[in-house]
Amino acid sequence: MRKAATLITTAVSAATLLGSLALTSDPAVAAEKKKALSVVEQGKQIAFNRKKGNCLACHQIAGGTLPGNIGPPLVAMKQRFPSKQALREQIWDATKRNPNTSMPPFGRHKILTEDEIDKVVEFIWTL
Predict the structure, then answer these.
(1) What element of type H or E holds 117?
(2) pLDDT at position 16, please?
């Protein structure tokens, strides 16, 4: 009886250890997964990330959960902005077009890097 209990305990411990190893995040694996994502998908992740772009705090975006309503819904972006550059400038520093905006200047205040802004622009442009 003791032998069976010991065997079961060992099996459960081994399964737990293997399960925890599978959940361990390996930076190399994470980097490969990130490379595999399209630029648009990377931009979406940044835009939806509450610690990065956090666009959902103020905007309603298709596919997002718990959107805010301070800013306009992000739809028909190609019609609203004549070029990707105009959209990028808005994200970089919205106060240039509207000094009273509540949108933070993501580029000017270095909230996002140049690369992150480019990826967010690619995502938002698809909406």
Answers:
(1) helix 114-125
(2) 55
CA distance 63 to 41: 12
Give the predicted TM-score (pTM) of the model: 0.69
Helix then strand then coil, % of the chain, to nearest 5: 55, 0, 45
CA separation, residue 103 to residues 44, 46, 56, 72, 111 (Å): 18, 16, 12, 11, 12
pLDDT digit string, tens, across residues 58-86: 999 999 888 899 999 999 999 999 899 99
Among residues 57, 63, 117, 123, the alpha carbon closest in space to that of 90 is found at 117
User: What are the phi and psi torsion angles at 23 (to 5°)?
Assistant: -85, -15
